[in-house]
Amino acid sequence: xxxxxxxxxxxxxxxxxxxxxxxxxxxxxxxxxxxxxxxxxxxxxxxxxxxxxxxxxxxxxxxxxxxxxxxxxxxxxxxxxxxxxxxxxxxxxxxxxxxxxxxxxxxxxxxxxxxxxxxxxxxxxxxxxxxxxxxxxxxxxxxxxxxxxxxxxxxxxxxxxxxxxxxxxxxxxxxxxxxxxxxxxxxxxxxxxxxxxxxxxxxxxxxxxxxxxxxxxxxxxxxxxxxxxxxxxxxxxxxxxxx
Length: 243
Ligand SMILES: *[C@@H]1O[C@H](CO)[C@@H](O)[C@H](O)[C@H]1NC(C)=O
Ligand SMILES: *[C@@H]1O[C@H](CO)[C@@H](O)[C@H](O)[C@H]1NC(C)=O
Fold this sequence. Notes:
With about 240 residues, this protein is α+β, with helices and mostly antiparallel strands. The protein contains five helices and six strands, in the order ααββββββααα. It has a single domain, classed as TULIP domain (Bactericidal permeability-increasing protein, domain 1). The longest helix has 30 residues, at about 205-235. It starts with a helix and ends with a helix. It binds 2-acetamido-2-deoxy-beta-D-glucopyranose (2 copies). One 2-acetamido-2-deoxy-beta-D-glucopyranose (NAG) binds near residues 199 and 202.
């Protein structure tokens, strides 16, 4: 038992030390450390779809998110479960500001050409001019998505080694140029009402985007910080960003 625990521990440590060959080491004092990280993300990108097991990164196409919910505080509530996000594996880092010298801060501008979210939904309340109460499958195609992500980081010790962890992670400034939503079964068997409702949803896509922005923001946060956090947990600060 102890022997196995030892082996696991040893293997874990040995494993943790090897950066894949397509990752270039970025130096924390390099004034262009941000650009260096972007190059690594670009090198990893073709692999995001399948996932990168050697870096503990799951498949991003689809990316599976167990649950997300929306509570406007007022008269509208929505729960989404089994979210499948397609297209999250393809994004562009439009700008990066990474400081690893004193304040450990990262800010990113991101762009996704398209993202598709297919999810079970349960919705109750007033949205737009509609009074909705139902559940089914929602399909959403989003086009031209921009977001700003930022985070601070702090150092912590794991197995006697220094790692970086995120604090105060935030995604904001979400802009979606175009969206098409389809909510199946919103009025159960009443097919005519379902069609009419989806027509209204489509005609008011802009307002619907605003209503759903918190969920899409949270999905984006899972994509960005989910990937990065796995890497930070796996490798030490010195391995990723030597001095
Ligand atoms: C989203 O796009 C996919 C693939 O292009 C398409 O099959 C699906 O019907 C679209 N869904 C909506 C709600 O527009
Ligand atoms: C949805 O609305 C757009 C315009 O905003 C329109 O071009 C498109 O045909 C509509 N689609 C459906 C399925 O109603």
